[in-house]
Amino acid sequence: MKKKISLVLGSGGARGYAHMGVIEVLEEYGFEIQSIAGSSMGALIGGVYACKKLSAYKEWVLTLDVLDVLKLVDFKIGEIGLIKGDRIFGVMEEMLGGKNIEDLPITFTAVATDLTSQKEVWLQKGSVSRAVRASIAIPTIFTPVKMNNKIFVDGGILDPVPIGPTLTDMTDLTVVVNLNSAKTLKKELIISEKEKKRQRRLHDKINSFLEHKLSGTEKSGLHYTTIFTKTINAMQNAITRYKMAGYQPDIVIEIPKDCCGFYEFHKAYKMMELGKMIAKDTLEELGYCAKEKTKEDD
Length: 298
Known about the structure:
Helices cover 42% and strands 19% of the residues. The protein is α/β, with parallel strands linked by helices. The two termini are 19 Å apart.
């Protein structure tokens, strides 16, 4: 019989691509995901999975070239967010098909931060894409989301590992994916030279584009992103330790915080593969085995 699980997907910027690899392995090992709670990138991947669009999203992410990425970035220099986000989330809206959370086949919670009340908010009704958009609104990067006289930003600010929404779930296990782990990799991830070249090409072109957009403030812009990244990491690491000490999940899949920078979204393939590798190692250490394939699985 399949183990029914509640899945908690943490925040951590580009490291969130590891969630896709983890989900793939959980299914391979015979777990049935009945509930997902996510913050920031965790909400994005969780929402896509709940809408049964993870394969399409994965294919889209891995086939984006430099021009595709740059066309999706709508800068708003001087505004309250560097990127407006309408183009990116327009694609997401189309992919998610305008679904509402209450109509999904599994329970889904996107965690956001309400700046008005200075509290975390569990978004469990209404538009999936709108809830995800609110949860992933990284301050000063994406513009905030206004809903019901409230201003929402990134859920990872107050809750990087949102275990709370899953505490009343009637499932067998709670599985947490922590993207801010202090642990180091036990073995090296092998990536093909072709993929390495693709990552370098995306990295170089996007950085060049950003420098052009920030012309006149280039030095302060680069300094700003470095400081902001370190600030976010320090904050989330501290909160994660506090949250994990307060709750005792059954399985914790630890993604090292130094395996990928917060903004290194060109490393999608690497993070997906890393998520697979770490998830497999974790489950096998705990005594779980991959499910044997049957004709029904093919």
